[in-house]
Design a protein that fits this description.
Elements: H1 3-16, H2 24-50, H3 57-64, H4 69-80, H5 86-89, H6 98-119, H7 127-147, H8 152-162
Helix pairs in contact: 1-2, 1-7, 2-3, 2-6, 2-7, 2-8, 4-6, 4-8, 6-7
Length: 168
Protein backbone atom coordinates (compact mmCIF):
# COMPACT_ATOMS: atom_id res chain seq x y z
CA UNK A 1 0.00 0.00 0.00
CA UNK A 2 1.21 3.51 -0.73
CA UNK A 3 2.24 5.98 1.94
CA UNK A 4 -0.65 8.27 0.94
CA UNK A 5 -3.19 5.48 1.43
CA UNK A 6 -1.58 4.58 4.76
CA UNK A 7 -2.03 8.19 5.90
CA UNK A 8 -5.68 8.15 4.85
CA UNK A 9 -6.22 4.93 6.80
CA UNK A 10 -4.47 6.50 9.79
CA UNK A 11 -6.82 9.48 9.59
CA UNK A 12 -9.85 7.17 9.59
CA UNK A 13 -8.46 5.18 12.51
CA UNK A 14 -7.83 8.31 14.59
CA UNK A 15 -11.32 9.61 13.80
CA UNK A 16 -12.89 6.50 15.33
CA UNK A 17 -10.29 5.86 18.04
CA UNK A 18 -12.46 7.19 20.89
CA UNK A 19 -16.06 6.32 19.94
CA UNK A 20 -17.83 8.36 22.60
CA UNK A 21 -15.70 11.43 23.34
CA UNK A 22 -12.95 11.92 20.82
CA UNK A 23 -9.85 13.64 22.11
CA UNK A 24 -8.78 16.81 20.35
CA UNK A 25 -5.36 15.24 19.82
CA UNK A 26 -6.95 12.39 17.85
CA UNK A 27 -9.18 14.67 15.80
CA UNK A 28 -6.33 17.09 15.07
CA UNK A 29 -3.94 14.32 14.03
CA UNK A 30 -6.71 12.81 11.87
CA UNK A 31 -7.23 16.13 10.09
CA UNK A 32 -3.50 16.59 9.62
CA UNK A 33 -3.11 13.03 8.34
CA UNK A 34 -5.94 13.53 5.85
CA UNK A 35 -4.22 16.60 4.39
CA UNK A 36 -0.87 14.84 4.22
CA UNK A 37 -2.51 11.87 2.52
CA UNK A 38 -3.63 14.11 -0.35
CA UNK A 39 -0.33 16.01 -0.36
CA UNK A 40 1.65 12.78 -0.71
CA UNK A 41 -0.76 11.32 -3.27
CA UNK A 42 -0.16 14.32 -5.53
CA UNK A 43 3.59 14.35 -4.94
CA UNK A 44 3.86 10.64 -5.66
CA UNK A 45 1.95 11.09 -8.92
CA UNK A 46 4.14 14.02 -9.90
CA UNK A 47 7.43 12.32 -9.16
CA UNK A 48 6.35 9.18 -11.01
CA UNK A 49 5.31 11.35 -13.96
CA UNK A 50 8.67 13.15 -14.02
CA UNK A 51 10.96 10.21 -13.20
CA UNK A 52 10.01 6.85 -14.71
CA UNK A 53 11.24 3.39 -13.76
CA UNK A 54 11.43 1.37 -10.56
CA UNK A 55 15.21 1.76 -10.43
CA UNK A 56 14.75 5.52 -9.89
CA UNK A 57 12.92 5.34 -6.54
CA UNK A 58 15.68 7.21 -4.69
CA UNK A 59 15.62 9.95 -7.32
CA UNK A 60 11.83 10.27 -6.90
CA UNK A 61 12.27 10.54 -3.13
CA UNK A 62 14.83 13.28 -3.63
CA UNK A 63 12.56 15.13 -6.06
CA UNK A 64 9.65 14.91 -3.63
CA UNK A 65 11.57 17.18 -1.23
CA UNK A 66 11.37 20.02 -3.77
CA UNK A 67 7.59 20.43 -3.48
CA UNK A 68 6.43 23.35 -1.33
CA UNK A 69 3.11 23.37 0.52
CA UNK A 70 2.45 27.07 -0.05
CA UNK A 71 3.23 26.99 -3.75
CA UNK A 72 1.09 23.90 -4.21
CA UNK A 73 -1.80 25.67 -2.50
CA UNK A 74 -1.38 28.75 -4.71
CA UNK A 75 -1.43 26.50 -7.77
CA UNK A 76 -4.49 24.68 -6.50
CA UNK A 77 -6.25 28.01 -5.90
CA UNK A 78 -5.74 28.99 -9.51
CA UNK A 79 -7.07 25.64 -10.78
CA UNK A 80 -10.10 25.51 -8.51
CA UNK A 81 -11.46 28.62 -10.22
CA UNK A 82 -12.03 26.68 -13.43
CA UNK A 83 -9.79 28.58 -15.81
CA UNK A 84 -6.24 27.74 -16.70
CA UNK A 85 -3.81 30.41 -15.45
CA UNK A 86 -2.56 32.63 -18.30
CA UNK A 87 1.07 31.57 -17.97
CA UNK A 88 0.06 27.91 -18.53
CA UNK A 89 -2.05 28.50 -21.64
CA UNK A 90 1.08 28.60 -23.80
CA UNK A 91 1.75 24.96 -22.89
CA UNK A 92 -1.78 23.63 -23.11
CA UNK A 93 -5.22 24.88 -24.01
CA UNK A 94 -7.18 22.35 -22.00
CA UNK A 95 -10.12 23.36 -19.90
CA UNK A 96 -10.17 22.48 -16.24
CA UNK A 97 -12.71 19.78 -15.50
CA UNK A 98 -15.05 19.99 -12.55
CA UNK A 99 -13.22 16.96 -11.10
CA UNK A 100 -9.86 18.76 -11.11
CA UNK A 101 -11.48 21.92 -9.76
CA UNK A 102 -12.85 19.85 -6.89
CA UNK A 103 -9.49 18.17 -6.21
CA UNK A 104 -7.83 21.60 -6.13
CA UNK A 105 -10.51 22.97 -3.80
CA UNK A 106 -10.20 19.97 -1.47
CA UNK A 107 -6.42 20.41 -1.38
CA UNK A 108 -6.77 24.08 -0.38
CA UNK A 109 -9.44 23.35 2.22
CA UNK A 110 -7.51 20.41 3.66
CA UNK A 111 -4.37 22.53 4.02
CA UNK A 112 -6.35 25.21 5.86
CA UNK A 113 -7.87 22.65 8.24
CA UNK A 114 -4.42 21.14 8.78
CA UNK A 115 -3.09 24.55 9.78
CA UNK A 116 -6.00 25.02 12.15
CA UNK A 117 -5.50 21.53 13.60
CA UNK A 118 -1.78 21.94 14.08
CA UNK A 119 -1.55 25.56 15.21
CA UNK A 120 -4.86 27.00 16.44
CA UNK A 121 -5.49 25.45 19.84
CA UNK A 122 -8.17 28.02 20.60
CA UNK A 123 -10.45 26.35 18.04
CA UNK A 124 -12.11 23.01 18.73
CA UNK A 125 -12.55 20.45 15.98
CA UNK A 126 -15.60 18.21 15.92
CA UNK A 127 -15.74 14.63 14.75
CA UNK A 128 -18.21 15.70 12.06
CA UNK A 129 -15.82 18.36 10.69
CA UNK A 130 -12.94 15.89 10.54
CA UNK A 131 -15.12 13.15 9.04
CA UNK A 132 -16.22 15.57 6.32
CA UNK A 133 -12.59 16.42 5.56
CA UNK A 134 -11.58 12.75 5.40
CA UNK A 135 -14.55 11.95 3.15
CA UNK A 136 -13.61 14.79 0.82
CA UNK A 137 -9.96 13.72 0.70
CA UNK A 138 -11.08 10.17 -0.04
CA UNK A 139 -13.20 11.56 -2.88
CA UNK A 140 -10.17 13.47 -4.20
CA UNK A 141 -8.21 10.19 -4.22
CA UNK A 142 -10.89 8.57 -6.39
CA UNK A 143 -11.16 11.51 -8.76
CA UNK A 144 -7.41 11.89 -9.13
CA UNK A 145 -7.15 8.36 -10.55
CA UNK A 146 -9.03 9.47 -13.66
CA UNK A 147 -7.89 13.10 -13.81
CA UNK A 148 -4.17 12.33 -13.77
CA UNK A 149 -4.54 10.40 -17.05
CA UNK A 150 -6.23 13.26 -18.91
CA UNK A 151 -4.43 16.09 -20.77
CA UNK A 152 -5.04 18.40 -17.80
CA UNK A 153 -3.38 16.01 -15.34
CA UNK A 154 0.22 16.63 -16.47
CA UNK A 155 -0.44 20.38 -16.67
CA UNK A 156 -1.57 20.34 -13.05
CA UNK A 157 1.40 18.21 -11.99
CA UNK A 158 3.91 20.53 -13.68
CA UNK A 159 2.19 23.53 -12.09
CA UNK A 160 2.22 21.90 -8.64
CA UNK A 161 5.95 21.34 -8.94
CA UNK A 162 7.08 24.56 -10.60
CA UNK A 163 4.46 26.92 -9.17
CA UNK A 164 5.20 30.59 -9.65
CA UNK A 165 8.54 29.84 -11.34
CA UNK A 166 6.54 29.19 -14.50
CA UNK A 167 5.46 32.84 -14.63
CA UNK A 168 8.92 34.11 -15.53
Amino acid sequence: MSFAKDLLLQAKYLLKKEPKRPKQASLRRAASSAYYALFHLLIDSCTRFFVKGQHNENLRKLLSRAFAHGEMKETAKSFKGGTLPEHLKVAHSCTISSALQEIAEIFCDAQEVRHLADYDLARTLTRLQVKDLIDRVENAFRQWESVRKTPEGPVFMVALFAGKRLKR
